[in-house]
Design brief:
heterodimer, A: 4 helices, B: mainly alpha, five-stranded mixed sheet, two-stranded antiparallel sheet, globular, EC 2.4.99.18 (chain B), STT3_N (chain B), dolichyl-diphosphooligosaccharide--protein glycotransferase (chain B), glycosyltransferase (chain B), transferase (chain B)
């Protein structure tokens, strides 16, 4: 009985997650897609490093950290742009995007310097 | 209610009154800040006035030499510089082992001034860098404390930091060391972190990472920042203060900060591989997990959330345990668990004395004594607890950060005297908060009891009490954002409102009770507080003038016939510079290495960087061995001159004979035939007639006391307060070439091996050479012919 109900619960859980997520606005979903893409790129780099070895370690580090960094910055952008977030309701989304661009610029400048 | 109507009627006049008052307050605080900067600069100028504009101590000479190189050859040469005039024959990669922040800062200032046709020399810029940056540091303290508690507390904290003796001791004019710039970078990084935490703006997060990069460039103490901030994030999560601003403040800092830290050559890959940085990664992961949990909680219904939790816990626990086990195995496999020696000695204070005698021997690494706390932070020592309590009422993210900062820095300052410097800004911030709050209480009681002003004050009281009625939760910052939507005259009024409503700790009754202090006692207490401040100022000026302004390369003493100046060090380095060849190597104890390369411009064997323990142990063994063995060791290192510092004639206590036991210990750590008990008689270190024969025959004794008996006929050593043991002896392998005016520095030359060997030695030499000629044919040229 426990097993069956827990299986049902798991199924219900995934369905409710799906429906709740489908309710988010389009621009937030685009940002989530970008975050997923960045994390996926980072994972590919890690798998490649495991297969081939980490010899130019600075290149590996800068590659992985740039992916993780831009994902983190996109999450910050999503937090600031989300209309349900009351703390940021007087922050115009253009300002949030400009901050996002600036931070990414600094991140990639540093990353290219370190790439070697 | 009648109250809001009267307030709305009075709002226009109150509005203009408020703006005028706020404008006046803004201009006043600007001028106060300017004066604080001027005071911070001028209190550090005592050494320039009393002595001259000269670089102090030992480490600053190395930084000065590096800055000279940078100014002469440009930044590309500096970045790739391999220094072959130190650690002979190993050399030192300067580009990869120095923290470049200080030298690049001073170099940039010099270049800027010179391109504006202000011809300051490199030395002048180096000498005055520290006072300028201490002015900047006090302004940064103002900004930081303003974010925590308001303008009043900010100004008080800035004034306290400008004068605190602990900071003065490492940033006088002439003390051109890393801390001069690093403390400014530390406070500024903390300010930007708190600002990001309060506003949630990604722009400030970027600035925070750049300021952290500047801190990493400047000082090895940057590990304090990268461990304190994760600790604070963890504290916020655990106490239920997680918010999206926390995520924005921390997550970009970790990624950008790690990348920036890896850019600095000294840190390099240590930024991801040493245990000092693991805390930041761990908290990064924890933060993401918590953020994800909050997000899921937000989009699911409570029942579904429970199901999700049970699912995750059952599946994720196994995976988590596996990952953690792998991590622990990785870390535990290295002998020091991934920590560097210095950090380990901070966590376990007994570590250095057991395993790394060099770290234990530096005087700055000893634990401080109780009087040094009162000497270094004086009055702040008992204002700090009051400030901690003031931070708790009300507790916000920023005030919890201040409490954490002061708790950790108190612990570390108790382990190492040098870290009192990191404790000083925390002490100033908390004491500034305490002083400012108490000033608030007393002046408010006075104001409320003076006739005529009470009518307008009533309106203020109504406003604040209505505002305090709204304040329910603990985060003051959300209060502030709600208020700004109501009225936004200027930033200063926002701060003033916040200041007013925080003090009565959100209870109107408590406010009325606090405000009812009797008039005469508040006046008296106010005067007493001002007297306390006066005591602090007097002590700081005294400490700056008398205790911390000595350049230690020039010594003075007063006697009945006036002022004596002991300029022996520069005399000796000048002699070396003018009377020896450019490529001659000079051997001395590592204390004097930097000064020798910078002022005498000669190659040295060991210097203050102390990165190679074996090399230092070689020099220490040579100093502790008899003349023959010492000659051999020095000859193998191509040494031409040996320099010893001797204070026995004038009573200078930090000479080489007093440091000799450290030489024995360090040498004995690598070469087991040097045993410390051989040099002690009954466990006591003596150089008089009761000293052991090993002690009386070692090189250090002989070089220090050669011909010493000629000075007063009895050979009385003023530092050890005894007559020396062996008075009449000759040197067989060394010859004295220079002794300074007060006998403080003595320079000896290695006697070259004799050209011809006659008599008995020839027979024994032919025997040994025929027996071992095959192996040692190449080495016979270097063999000591006196055996």
């Amino acid at each position: 009985m426990g097993r069956a109900s827990s299986k049902e619960d798991v199924g219900a859980l995934f369905r409710s997650l799906r429906s709740a997520y489908a309710a988010t606005t389009l621009n937030l979903k685009i940002i989530d897609l970008y975050v997923g893409f960045a994390i996926f790129t980072a994972l590919i780099q890690v798998v490649y490093m495991v297969m081939v070895g980490s010899f130019p370690f600075n290149s590996f580090l800068s590659g992985v950290l740039s992916c993780v960094g831009t994902a983190v910055l996109a999450v910050c952008l999503r937090i600031q742009v989300n209309k349900e977030n009351k703390e940021f309701k007087d922050l115009p989304p253009e300002r949030a995007f400009a901050d996002f661009v600036l931070c990414n610029l600094v991140l990639h400048l540093v990353m290219i310097n370190f790439l070697g | 209610m009648a109250a809001p109507e009267t307030s709305t009627a009075a709002v226009p006049t109150l509005y203009t009154n408020n703006t005028l008052r706020n404008a006046f307050g803004g201009v006043l605080s600007f001028f106060i800040l300017l004066l604080i900067g001027v005071m911070a600069f001028s209190i550090r100028l005592f050494s320039v006035i009393k002595y001259e504009s000269v670089i102090h101590e030992f480490d600053p000479y190395f930084n000065y030499r590096v800055t000279q190189f940078l100014a002469k050859n440009g930044i590309y040469e500096f970045w790739n510089w391999f220094d072959d005039r130190t650690w002979y024959p190993l050399g030192r990669v300067i580009g990869g082992t120095v923290y470049p922040g200080l030298t690049l800062t001073a170099g940039t200032i010099w270049w800027l001034l010179n391109s504006l046709n202000i011809p300051l020399s490199v030395e002048t810029v180096c000498v005055f860098t520290a006072p300028i940056f201490s002015a900047f540091a006090s302004w940064a303290t103002f900004l930081l404390t303003k974010e925590v508690k308001g303008t009043g507390a900010g100004l008080t904290a800035a004034a306290l930091l400008a004068m605190v003796p602990s900071y003065i001791s490492r940033s006088v004019a002439g003390s051109y060391d890393n801390e001069a710039v690093a403390i400014f970078a530390l406070i500024f990084t903390f300010y930007l972190y708190i600002k990001t935490l309060n506003t949630g703006s990604l722009f400030y997060a970027t600035l925070n990472s750049i300021a952290y990069f500047y801190m990493v460039c400047s000082w090895g103490g940057y590990t304090f920042i990268i461990n304190l901030i994760p600790m604070h994030v963890l504290l916020c999560i655990v106490t239920g203060r997680f918010s999206s601003r926390l995520y924005i403040a921390y997550a970009p800092l970790v990624v950008l900060g790690t990348l920036l830290a890896a850019l600095v050559p000294v840190v390099g890959f240590n930024a991801v591989m040493t245990s000092e940085h693991f805390a930041s990664f761990l908290v990064f992961i924890i933060l993401h997990v918590v953020a994800f949990v909050y997000y899921i909680k937000g989009i699911l219904s409570p029942k579904m959330f429970k199901v999700a939790v049970t699912l995750v816990v059952s599946v994720g626990l196994a995976v988590c345990c596996a990952v953690i086990a792998v991590l622990i195995a990785l870390v535990a496999s290295s002998p020091t668990k991934g920590w560097s020696g210095r950090s380990l000695s901070l966590l376990d204070p007994t570590y250095a004395s057991k395993y790394i005698p060099i770290i234990a021997s530096v005087s700055e690494h000893q634990p401080p004594t109780w009087p040094s706390y009162f000497m270094d932070i004086n009055v702040l020592a008992f204002l700090v607890p009051a400030g901690i309590i003031a931070c708790f009422s009300p507790l916000s993210d920023s005030s919890s950060f201040v409490v954490l900062y002061i708790a950790t820095s108190v612990y570390f300052s108790g382990v190492m005297v040098r870290l009192m410097l990191v404790f000083a800004p925390a002490a100033c911030i908390t004491s500034g908060i305490a002083l400012s709050q108490s000033f608030d209480v007393f002046t408010r009681s006075i104001k409320f009891q003076l006739p005529g002003i009470s009518s307008s004050m009533e309106v203020d009281a109504v406003e604040t009490s209505s505002a305090t009625a709204e304040a329910q939760n603990d985060a003051v910052k959300t209060e502030k954002s709600e208020e700004t939507s109501k009225n936004r005259p200027s930033k200063k009024s926002k701060k003033k409102e916040k200041e007013k409503e925080e003090k009565p700790s959100t209870k109107a009754k408590a406010e009325k009770r606090l405000l009812a202090l009797p008039l005469d006692s508040s006046v008296i207490f106010l005067l007493l507080l001002i007297l306390l401040g006066a005591f602090y100022v007097v002590h700081c000026v005294w400490a700056a003038a008398e205790a911390y302004s000595a350049p230690s390369i020039v010594l003075t003493s007063r006697s009945h016939d006036g002022l004596h100046v002991f300029d022996d060090f520069r005399e000796a380095y000048g002699w070396l510079r003018h009377n020896t060849d450019v490529d001659d190597k000079v051997a001395s104890w590592w204390d004097y290495g930097y000064q020798t390369t910078a002022m005498a411009n000669r190659t040295v064997i060991v210097d203050n960087n102390t990165w190679n323990n074996t090399h230092i142990a070689t020099v220490g063994t040579a100093m502790s061995s008899p003349e023959k063995a010492a000659w051999e060791i020095f000859h193998s290192l191509d040494v031409k001159y040996v320099l010893v510092v001797f204070g026995g004639l004038v009573g200078y206590p930090s000479d080489d004979i007093n440091k000799f036991l450290w030489m024995v210990r360090i040498g004995g750590g690598v070469f087991p035939h040097i045993k410390e008990p051989d040099y002690l008689r009954d466990g006591q270190y003596r150089i008089d007639s009761q000293a052991t024969p090993t002690m009386l025959n070692c090189l250090m004794y002989k070089l220090s006391y050669y011909r010493f008996v000629e000075t007063d006929g009895k050979g009385f050593d003023r530092v050890r307060q005894t007559e020396i043991g062996k008075k009449y002896f000759k040197l067989t392998h060394f010859e004295e070439v220079f002794t300074t005016h007060h006998w403080m520095v003595r320079i000896y030359k290695l006697k070259p091996p004799k050209n011809r060997i006659r008599g008995k030695t020839k027979k024994s030499k032919s025997k040994t050479s025929s027996a071992s000629s095959r192996g040692k044919r190449s080495g016979t040229g270097k063999k000591n012919p006196w055996q």
